[in-house]
Amino acid sequence: MALCAxxxxxxxxxxxxxASATAAADSAVLxxxxxxxxxxxxxxxxxxxFPIGPEGTIQHPLLADINVVNVPRPVVRERLRAALSRYExxxxxxxxxxxxxxxxxxxxxxxxYSLPPETTLGQxxxxxxxxxxxxxxxxxxxxxxxxxxxxxxxxxxxxxxxMRIHSGDQIRVTRRxxxxxxxxxxxxxxxxxxxxxxxxxxxxxxx
Length: 207
Known about the structure:
Elements: H1 2-27, E1 35-40, E2 48-51, H2 73-84, E3 93-105, E4 111-115, H3 121-127, E5 135-144, E6 147-151, H4 158-161, E7 170-175, H5 179-206
Parallel strand pairs: 3-7
Antiparallel strand pairs: 1-2, 1-3, 3-4, 5-6, 5-7
């Protein structure tokens, strides 16, 4: 029975993961600075990744009148369809969102990234080149909507593993404390400086 239950449990977990990712994509809304990815059949001039400007519209010369900020996906779809219908009778297109986030701290490639809404915090850290040898995955700081969250990404529970990015997130992997580097090294530098100063004083007194 146990052998039969294990594959079933894995399949159920995969279904839950897919459903969660789909729900994240469906509930996503855009903010200025995010990106909308559009693919229009037989219309390459309308296809590509386009940033959202400060006024909330798509930065594309032929779609600049469409406001997409804080708008549900079905409304965005209808607005895109109406705009594209000005150029083609029955436009066939798909679109998706990319959230603009920052990944920094103890990661190998800190910087700004545009990632899909279904991206987890762990995947966002991986996009930043993963952690350095000094990084702490058990203490990751997330600045979100003016609040600071401390997340332990080493925990195996589904709630933590499934935490997804939000538009504008600032994710920082903290640094692991190292006594030799953080205490002994600076202390040695101070002792060396004192010794050098003492030597200089002695030379000055001899002169």
